[in-house]
Amino acid sequence: MALDRRDFLRTAAAGAGLAVTGRGVDASEVPDAKEPDTKEGIGAPFVRSGQVPDVVVVGAGNFGAWTALNLQRGGMNVVLLDQYGP
What is the pTM of this model? Predict the structure, then answer.
């Protein structure tokens, strides 16, 4: 079955309506989140002590990387953060 744009928008609107009214999922059905285990997890992110940036750019996508590069070219001390690390 092919899903055209009109059917997609209708389904998305119905899902958004359920989410807004809180009728999508009963809270008792959602499992409790467990605390992350630091021994098995990736641990704390790499942090450089003593570094004080002028600007922190969050997200290293096309625009984030471009912004960080141009700010650095302009003489700013820039830290670029991405979900995979600094």
Answer: 0.43
